[in-house]
Predict the 3D structure of the following.
Amino acid sequence: MSDDGLKKIISHAKEYGFVFPSSEIYDGLSAAYDYGQLGSELKNNIKEYWWTAMVRMNENIVGIDASIFMHPTTWKASGHVDAFNDPLIDNKDSKKRYRADVLIEEHIAKIEAKINKDVTKAKKRFGDNFDEAQFRNTNPQVLRRQGDIDSINTRFKAAMEAENLASVKALIEDLGITCPVSGSKNWTDVRQFNLMFKTELGAVSGDSGAVYLRPETAQGIFVNYLNVQKSGRMKLPFGIAQIGKAFRNEIIARQFIFRMREFEQMEMQFFIKPGTQEKWYSHWKEARIQWHKALGLGEDRYRFHDHVKLAHYADAACDIEFNFPMGFKELEGIHSRTDFDLKQHEEYSNKKLRYFDPESQESYVPFVLETSIGLDRMFLAVLSSSLREEKLEDESVRTVMSIPFALAPVKAAILPLIKKDGLPEKAREVLAQLQLHHNVHYDEKDAIGRRYRRQDAIGTPLCITVDHETLKDHAVTVRNRDTMKQERVPIAKLPHHVDEWVSMSSLFRA
Ligand code: GAP
């Protein structure tokens, strides 16, 4: 799928009440979105799937809900005040601001596109005998272009590592990068821009009252490590999970809900004995990819990307990337964070954050394995892999969202065949029987075929039709969204039948 694919998702999401631009009546706010009536249901279901997998299915993981505002020293200790920066540059003519690293990445992407064009042309020319790997490794033009990419990457990496922003600007100038708006090369110097939102607490103004909106939920877990360990009498290894909002003043926030300034994270910090991090890193990589795959969005939509340049606190890190409409992008991070965070908090708070190991009879600062996934990105992953148009046998086309049944916002629609003869009353009885267990909808408007299409378009797994026979045989017709097959089910067995199809536990059965 392309940018065009993303546009389709955005307009479908708006039309059916999944996602709206924020404060739209005032023309919206850039990169802020509101989840609508179906979107908030889907979001809650994703959270429930994650929380169940983390907290309910693991005896040694507990969940917390820390506040968004934290003592400002937290962010000094974590490194965010000094190092949570993006390099930015302004164009003096258009007055537009850019991330210097993104300008360079986009320049590289253009060279990559040229390579791909060379490959496509050669493929056409050589037909079935074409060996792409060999072509990429030997074609002089491709090799020259790849050499250009490598040297840009090397220069950029060296400049960033040396914190030499003048070199970053020189690279932009040497590459002849122009402003997409003004077309000019009239750039300011590159400056570091801190991504944390700063505000003031209560009536105090000035730096003494300054607090930040948390840029990650993880620090709320670290500062509560000892509270949870002691009050829950937790033994290593154990984990603390949390779902909550995070805020980053991203310079470029775009691609719908992929990169926003206010977003939600689902993070888990797993506290372990130093020296066991390799084992737990593999364990959590495997556990997290299985969590994704159990949804059935398509196994080839995921890949691991190992970080080459590790953050100063990590001894191993990778992303789970998902094939979004814009290509493979980061969905989740798995980081072996060593004892960096707890040690920093020990130093800045002057409080011991140690664990007394009853087996080895020693006291130490635990190491931490982190899994961190963006809820909004997960939402986009579900939406973008579900929306499709399907040609039916009679040549008509239906729009269907094949959202995994357990995550679907509406689990079943109860549809009286017609609006009279006692069918609506019977249908409402069925509704009452099911609505205690699942989010189910009642719909009596329009012909039954149109009602099916409406439910397909929002991803409802089951349509339950109440017809004249129902009044005699106390059974209903249940239509499956994906197969469109219909079966007759006695009303008495309906709660169990619906449950079998849509309950969250189906995701854990495999
Ligand atoms: N505690 C580690 C941490 O925050 P991160 O890679 O910066 O790591 C984790 O963020 C996840 O949060 C990402 O994999 C992504 O899914 C999500 N995320 C990060 N920035 C985001 C943004 N601006 N908008 C939406 N999601 C974002």
